[in-house]
Amino acid sequence: MSFLVLQKNGNVGNGYMVKKILILSASPKKDGNTTTLVDWFCEGVQIKDVNIEIVPAAFLKYKSNGCTSCRVCQKLKEYECVIDDEAKPALKKMAVADIIVMATPLYFFGASAQLKIIFDRMFSLYKWDNNTGTMQTVLKGKTLVLIASAFEGVGLDALEKPFALTAEYTGMKFKSLLVPNAGVSGTIKNNNDIRSKAVAFGKEVVDS
């Protein structure tokens, strides 16, 4: 599986470092509302010099349906999952990204199953010492971003909570763009108000 890389190159002077943005786009609809929101978000972040990589999380080839709780990752020096499938490089990219974006539609008051597979396997990006009750992670200090939409106006607060709690626990900044009443898949393309909000949200994220 090849990942889509977008890059805007410009004057990176005055000590400005190019931000690495990893986007996990996790809708099983290739041309649905989630894809459109990601496109608009990318418009906003590209006001700055950024490196954007989009991972089509719904179309990766997985060897397991989430974390298998083998805990082998806890014995390694490296922060990586030992299951050798297409989620493994995506998880490695999280470790070096500055901003991690997770984009998903609302399914039964939660994220898509395809995103949940990778979300659970983020276990490999943490190291716990149960004897001392301590935890270390390569995700600390990064920014976690959630982009989510729903057909109607209920459920997005429930979807958001696991991501917000994960960011708080991990020591990450957290930002979210929640789009209720987005309509059926694909129709959001005609909503200029939501487009403006998504582009503005991208600018806000990259400036923070």
List the strand order in the largest sheet. 1-3-2-4-7-8
CATH-scheme architecture: 3-Layer(aba) Sandwich
Count of helical stretches: 5
Strand content: 15-25%
Structural class: alpha/beta
> Could you please say which CATH topology applies here?
Rossmann fold
CATH H-level superfamily title: Flavodoxin domain
Q: What would CATH call the class?
A: Alpha Beta
Largest sheet: 6 strands, mixed
Oligomer: single chain
Provide the helix percentage. Answer: 25-40%
The dominant shape is globular
* pLDDT < 50 stretches: 6-15
- List the secondary-structure elements in sequence, H or E: EEHEHEHEEEHEH
End-to-end C-alpha gap: 31 Å
Total strands: the figure is 8
Radius of gyration: 17 Å
Averaged pLDDT, please?
87
Q: State the domain count.
A: 1
Report what the structure shows.
The chain is built from five helices and eight strands. The chain has 208 residues and is of the alpha/beta class. It has one domain (4-207): 3-Layer(aba) Sandwich (Rossmann fold), CATH 3.40.50. The strands form two sheets. Strands 1-3-2-4-7-8 form a six-stranded mixed β-sheet, sandwiched between helices. α4 (156-170) links the parallel β7 and β8 (173-179). The radius of gyration is 17 Å and the shape is globular.
